[in-house]
């Protein structure tokens, strides 16, 4: 009985086997033009104080450009999107119900092509989005766009916000390790059209920060098929909620679209908690690999995949962990090029990390070792912190 149960589990930790990302083709907006464009298209030029404030905020985001599905043509067809007091949720959901899975399918097609096996070999699908206000939802539509088998086990994660991608990877790890042969497609797709609206004093930071994008990852545990190439082992994963912070970060579905709330204290609250989360995650990774010393880590000896929720969040994490400059380079790069794409962002960071690593591998001399161990961090409403210990297998 015990032997047959162990035959049902994967061998070793779940592993990232392929990564794909995509952005919508609607519009690419340079951050230094965003405030002018935003106030023009929302017919809010008269709100000069708010426009100046948005310009100040945009300059401090660490963002250079963002991609959006929303265009001026869509706004002309839906003038109700400008006024959050008008009912517009149905029209928004109608658009994203098609576009969110379509964007996810572009990212997933790249991941599946890299993986090298047919889409019908995918056994599980975990889809995360804040735009999934329908059933059946984006997961079913993605399964049909990709031609997944009808028996694929689907899970949709809704409104997890910026930790949605990390939560989906954590769940994929559990699925892959507990179902021998499972190959889990993680897909995360976020389109800000559901949150778009004219400016008011409370939503400027969200408008300055969020962008559209999708990320997809194939996750599986051993035994691996010929051609499957492990990129990152997911050694251990934890989730922590910071007590008493449920009002600091949030999303609310209203008749006029989805509202974001980001308290000014978020970077500080994360700064207070992040080291404890990392210590706990590394202690469980030491237990997972059966090595007491594996829990003793110097933060600068790791590689880092941190969700770039905002520039001050990265600065705070860098400061509290005393990280050397450049340790969060992949996160800063993604923030600069795409903004905060909520749950999808962490997949872009993993993709950027492996791209940089390949370049560094090609350039390094023999006595310069690249870090084998790494940490992934993502945050969202709760305040919830997802932490994962990553390891790069030797063959890479
Ligand atoms: C919901 C999810 O799940 C999403 C997630 O990713 S979770 C993480 C979300 N990210 C955040 O919460 C961090 C967002 N904040 C930022 O990126 C930066 O604070 C910022 C770019 C907005 C400003 O940068 P900064 O270094 O703090 O500059 P600072 O000069 O202090 O602030 C600029 C202005 O922004 C205002 N501001 C800063 N943070 C604010 C916030 N959270 N809400 C409202 N206003 C804010 C300041 O009051 C200031 O206003 P004035 O110019 O009128 O004085």
From TrEMBL:
SUPFAM superfamilies: Thiolase-like (SSF53901)
Keywords for the protein's UniProt record, in alphabetical order: Acyltransferase, Transferase
Segments forming domain Chalcone/stilbene synthase C-terminal: 233-391
Domain Chalcone/stilbene synthase N-terminal: 3-223
GO biological process: pollen wall assembly
Bilayer-spanning residue ranges: none
Catalytic residue list: 162
InterPro entries linked: Chalcone/stilbene_synt_C (IPR012328), Chalcone/stilbene_synt_N (IPR001099), Polyketide_synthase_type-III (IPR011141), Thiolase-like (IPR016039)
One of the Pfam families matching this protein, by short name: Chal_sti_synt_C
GO molecular function, one term: acyltransferase activity
CDD domains (UniProt xref): CHS_like
Acyltransferase is among the record's keywords: yes
Family to which this protein belongs: Belongs to the thiolase-like superfamily. Chalcone/stilbene synthases family.
Protein name: Uncharacterized protein
Species in which this protein is naturally found: Urochloa decumbens
